[in-house]
Design brief:
InterPro entries: AB_hydrolase_fold, KANL3/Tex30_Abhydrolase, NSL3/Tex30. It comes from Hylia prasina. By secondary structure, the chain is α/β, with parallel strands linked by helices. It has one domain: Rossmann fold. The protein has helices at residues 40-51, 66-81, 98-112, 142-146, 164-173, 197-220, and strands at residues 2-7, 10-17, 25-30, 55-59, 90-96, 120-126, 151-156, 178-183. It starts with a strand and ends with a helix. The model has no long low-confidence stretch (mean pLDDT 91).
Length: 221
């Protein structure tokens, strides 16, 4: 279902993947610095989640400024929260690469507001860009260290923008409940020599779904 999300005086292109049964939880998903919401990995994940009962809203926001992308993500959260078509108990924010930085930033900002109502249940970071290639000295970890909701990282063990030991170091300092799933030998684009894209996507999708399910159950115990 294609929709337009109001964003300032413009609209963001977006698309819902809707489960057959009425969903109680949703995921808002966005792309990295290049591409858009039709990036194959995002479409694959959205379809997978919807087929298992999780509503998925993908949106496109061009622009390489993280603050701008964060505002766009906030607009998508508000849109889903106020939607009459889908009354959700909670939503998880998810993004690929730069999109996951924007998602982390939204959660940190909303978490600092006094009106945090628990609508946002967690964060999924696909290929989180912890540093620029070959620039490991400057880590983009400030939002991660201030978040308190559960976080899942899915990263390639050969990601040139997220060195394994560095991410493990940041994660060990995080206050939030967190988990890292390493895709063996995958680069930043999640490509693995000798494996098909579909094969890698199946691994990622299954990990994301089982983590979402665990966290929804944990909150309802």
């Amino acid at each position: 279902v294609k929709v337009k999300i109001p964003f300032g005086n413009k609209y963001l292109d977006a698309s819902f993947s809707v489960p057959e049964k009425k969903p109680t939880y949703g995921v808002i998903l966005t792309h990295g610095a290049g591409g858009d919401m039709n990036f194959p990995h995002l479409v694959s994940l959205a379809t997978y989640l919807a087929s298992r009962g999780v509503l998925c809203l993908r949106f496109t926001c061009k622009g390489l400024n993280v603050a701008y992308r964060t505002k766009a993500f906030k607009a998508a959260v508000e849109y889903l929260k106020l939607s009459d078509d889908y009354k959700l108990s909670g939503v998880f924010l998810a993004g690929r690469s730069m999109g996951s930085r924007a998602a982390a930033s939204v959660i940190r900002q909303l978490g600092q507001d006094d009106d945090d109502d628990g609508f946002i249940q967690g964060l999924v970071c696909l290929s989180y860009p912890l540093h620029r290639p070959k620039l490991q000295s400057k880590l983009r970890d400030e939002d991660l260290l201030l978040i308190s909701c559960p976080v899942l990282f899915v990263s390639g063990s050969a990601d040139e923008m997220c060195e394994k030991q560095l991410l493990e170091g940041v994660v060990s300092k995080m206050k939030a409940p967190k988990k890292i799933h390493w895709i063996d030998k995958a680069n930043h684009g999640m490509a693995v020599k000798g494996r098909t894209t579909n094969d890698v996507m199946e691994e990622i999708n299954a990990q994301v779904f089982s983590w979402l399910r665990e966290n929804v159950q944990l909150q309802h115990k």
